Amino acid sequence: MLKALACFIVAIWCVASLNAQTDVFGISKLYPSKQGFAEWTSAHWNNGVDRTITYASDAYDPTNWTEDHSGSSYGFHIDGKGVMTMYGTPRFHVNPKISSKVSAQVFTNIEFTAYYKKTGSQGASYGGMIVGMRGAANGHGSSNGNNCDAQCYMGRFRNDGKWDFEKELKHPATTYYSGSGYMKQDPLWGGKKLPEDKWIGMKYILINVNNTVKMTLYIDTVSNGNPVNGGVWQLVGEVIDNGSNFQGADISGCSYSDKYMPITAGGNVFWRTDNDTAQYKMVSIREIDPVANELIEVTGNKEKFSLRFSSTEINILSEAQIFKVEIIDAAGRMVLSDSSNNNIFDISNLATGVYLLRATTSDGVLVKRFVH
Q: 315, 344 in Cβ contact below 8 A?
């Protein structure tokens, strides 16, 4: 009876974990949300109210964190069906320090998710899908702003077809990094420009790791804005700011050196266009728990269990005997199962995505979230 009850509890727990793997739009989460923090999503864009926000907040935002920092008079057009369009040079800010509807907070360890579509061929080469984290609400030359409060990290899918991470301490001077190194930008589309009229998914993750700042970018080029199975997320690249590898920008008049790392800073999130037209939908901003993404223990001794991943296989290192290994996708479906007691698990035919690996061993059941 107790054993049956334990199995029932494990099953319920796994279902709950799978449900927690997707956001309000059914898009896979790479990291779990941190308890006690509110998240911001664009779900209120799909309320049937067609509206344009110009130098104002969005009355329908349940958090009231929406702020328009437009560099033009066009503002943001929300069609009431879930899509927001930006024209010209606006800056869409989500400022969690506003406490009129919900408690104020600061976004620090963040998972940003959105689908973006560029309309037309106009726009600066450095524009495109540009998302900034941790800046102050008025840190970019805004009215009553302070250029030394820019202090943000940007993930960029640029109009010229390149990607990078851009660090801005004092507006407008920046430094940037990609997989090729400092002040370099890698091609994202095989040397071609950012595609037009195609929905592109971005996941931009920014976390603190041992007094450094880690930035990671994923892209979904497959779903075309319809991520029915949580999205098809592929790693673009990641960079760690250790205080020395992003130096060189002008910080004259500021109280910090060019080694400064915004570990917390303003807690603001924004995205922008630069004389181009862009659409956004299914946006979510979540404070995440980066440690919790490692081993999720159901029962058993996690010290006796570890995994090594490659593009084709998972090597399961366990002191306990392995009875069964299962892989479950973001929609909660079993996609692979192996009861051969083999510690090498073939994933060469597994589609790109976010999964749970559940191993039943002689020491209990253990679960690990992973991205393939």
A: yes
Domain membership of residue 58 (yes or no) is yes
> Maximum CA pair distance of the chain?
70
| 256-300 pLDDT per residue, tens | 999 999 988 789 999 998 888 999 999 999 999 876 544 455 556
- Among residues 257, 273, 291, the one where a domain terminates is 291
Cα separation of 113 and 280, whole Å?
A: 10
The C-alpha atoms of residue 95 and residue 98 are separated, in whole angstroms, by 6
Residue whose C-alpha is closest to residue 226's, from 257, 201, 258, 209: 201
Is 148 strand, coil or helix?
Answer: helix
The end-to-end CA distance of the chain, in Å, is 38
Asked if 182 and 246 count as a contact pair (C-beta separation under 8 A), the reply is: yes
- Chain center to CA of 372: 16
Mean pLDDT within 162-179: 94
* H-state helical runs in the chain: 2-19
Handedness of CA 48, 49, 50, 56 (dihedral sign): negative
Whether residue 25 lies inside any domain: the answer is: no
Looking up tokens 């406490």, which residue turns up? 99
**Domains held by the chain: number:** 2
Query: Nearest to residue 339, comparing CAs of 363, 358, 313?
Result: 358
In 3-state terms, what secondary structure has residue 46?
helix
Enclosing domain of residue 10? 2-18+294-371
CA 74 to CA 54: how far, in whole Å?
A: 7
Q: Indicate whether 114 and 168 sit together in one domain.
A: yes
**Which of 243, 266, 291 is a domain's end point?**
291
